[in-house]
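Late entry, evening session. Most of the bench is empty. Finally got around to the prediction I had been postponing all week. Sequence below, unchanged from the version circulated by S.P.
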Amino acid sequence: MDLDLLRTLVIGNATRIVLCSLDGLGGLPRPGTAKSELATARIPNLHALAARSACGLIRHVGPGITPGSGPGHLGLFGYDPLRYVVGRGVLEALGIDFDLRPGDVAARGNFCSVDGDGLITDRRAGRIQTELCNRLVERLRQIRLKGVEVLVEPVREHRFVLVLRGAGLSGRVSETDPQALGVPPLAALALVPEAETTAAFVNRFVEAARPLLKDAAPANMLLLRGFDRQPDLPRLPEVFGLKAAAIAAYPMYRGLARLVGMEVLKTGSTFADEVTTLREHWSAYDFFFLHYKDTDKAGEDGDFDGKVAALERFDAHLPDILALRPDVLVVSGDHATPSVLKGHGWQPVPALIWSAYCGADPVRHFTERACAAGTLGLLAAQDLMPLVMANALRLTKFGA
């Protein structure tokens, strides 16, 4: 859907919209069963809501293409992720309120574990505590590179942000994270000729970090990915005529929301805190992006039962969201994270839209298999927001 066209169709209304993104929502059956995490979980509130909603499946990029969290959420917000590309490093930096300046190149960092041969044994260093991350970042701040300013900031758990500041930098640099175990970190490569200098700076930074982290097991090495400079995206409040707020405990998702022009609300570290924040600010905004991380975290750890429990925890909070009486409520996710894959998957993700105008739907359960029979069909992620706006009575007709 063309954003310029949508802008011409937007009309004002007093309706309120809540978009709940369950990170890594979709899954696959556990070996030996016919049930995914959603099909296994006891989620009576989600099932009841699906029975009153229009349901379907969302594809975020294309058939067989596994989306990252950035493009996955951009699609949910109405942006074509193939047209509007944003590196993970920019999102992490904005998520911690870092003063990212024009020309800065940002990367998302993971502290990781390597063995005596330098082979990766854990890409997330056992999800170390944030306090340890803070101490290790202090070590990395000792690094000085001639010709560029090096800025390192902690994020949360094993995550940090690396920012290079200087003239002539390029974000077109390959990742050092092979996203596999039993192999060494990769060298950063220039993806275009003008990125040669930047790639060299990155490799010098990694080599300088190696002795600083050598004795810090399990976080005795680092991985870098998502290099980019901050892009200029259309602003969601201007495109859709919405006063939009984001409620997310994890920094990266706050950064993504800030990038598209949402106001990021201060909240706590749990989803219960997020729901409380939603309630406290209910009258001040007409669009809320509410992010739930636990489903993705368990999926990436390969913890099927943990993901089932995470789904059940979300389900327990759903009545509190419904009690606010949103005019439109959307539940979906930014990508699948099947526990059997221990990572993101390419599978479409269930989605539901509830409103007074969503129409009849044969779906009675919020599962991958059930939602495949819904009236939304197989939907491109960027086509979700126009449907949400229509259900909120915020789009006029096209043509005479």
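Two things to note before I forget:
The chain has 14 helices and 13 strands.
The mean pLDDT is 95.
Will write this up properly tomorrow.
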